[in-house]
Amino acid sequence: MPKGSKELTAARKDEIISACAELYKTMSFKEITIKEIGNATTFTRTSIYNYFQTKEEIFLALLQKEYELWVNDLKRIQAENERMNVSEFADAIAKSLEERKNLLKIMSMNHYDMEENSRIERLTDFKVAYGQALKEVRNCLDKFFPEMTAQEKQDFIYSFFPFMFGIYPYTVITNKQRQAMEQADIHYVYMSVYEITFAEVKKLLS
Fold first, then answer.
1. How far is CA 130 from the centre of its chain?
2. Which DSSP symbol is given to 3?
3. Does domain 58-205 have CATH number 1.10.357.10?
4. Gap between the Cα atoms of 73 and 92, Å rounded
């Protein structure tokens, strides 16, 4: 780790993560390299290795940041609402994920490779953010649906979080994928992130 203040280190890390996020808007995970990320920062490519050892660590840090942003959304939902019925809660959760497209996009990637190619300290940092998201969803259920049993809340979490991994692939398709499905006689029905999430939350809470 280079010498310098904690603030400088945090700023450098954030610049690297932001550069990766910007590239990810137009490039695939396979296309993005450490060199490409370095070219999008204000410091040398080799300096990136002072903060992240692999491309997977950078993407894991980006995913961590997205989870942290979603956690803030979940806390805001709790703070701004004293009560919510099933439809209102489903609406709020669906809108929160509609704003977190990068979260859903990265979640659709191969987590095993991303986590395996990251150091334990980087992986632990990510797991803290992931664990906070689990906690805040449970806090939402505790506040808005106190009649639910502990097992019902656990069932919701263990159904909803795996469901989230499939939201992006089901709501974003390329022209190539569309053509292939048409040729395979698959009648794809487009659903937005909001629509598919709203329907799932309502079903899980019914």
1. 9
2. S
3. yes
4. 9
Q: Give the span between the Cα atoms of 75 and 65, in whole angstroms.
A: 15
> pTM of the predicted model, to two decimals?
0.91
Does domain 1-51 fall under CATH 1.10.10? My reply is yes
Domain ranges of the chain: 1-51, 58-205
Q: How far is CA 197 from CA 92, 171, 172, in A?
A: 10, 10, 14
Q: What is the chain's pLDDT, residue by residue, as a tens digit (206 residues)?
A: 445 688 888 999 999 999 999 999 999 999 999 999 999 998 877 889 999 999 999 999 999 999 999 999 999 999 999 999 999 999 999 999 999 999 999 999 888 889 999 999 999 999 999 999 999 999 999 999 999 999 999 999 999 999 999 999 999 888 898 899 889 998 888 899 999 999 999 999 99
Is the fold of 1-51 the same as that of 58-205? no
Residue keyed to tokens 């698959």: 186
What distance in Å separates the CA atoms of residue 103 and residue 99, rounded to the nearest whole number? 9
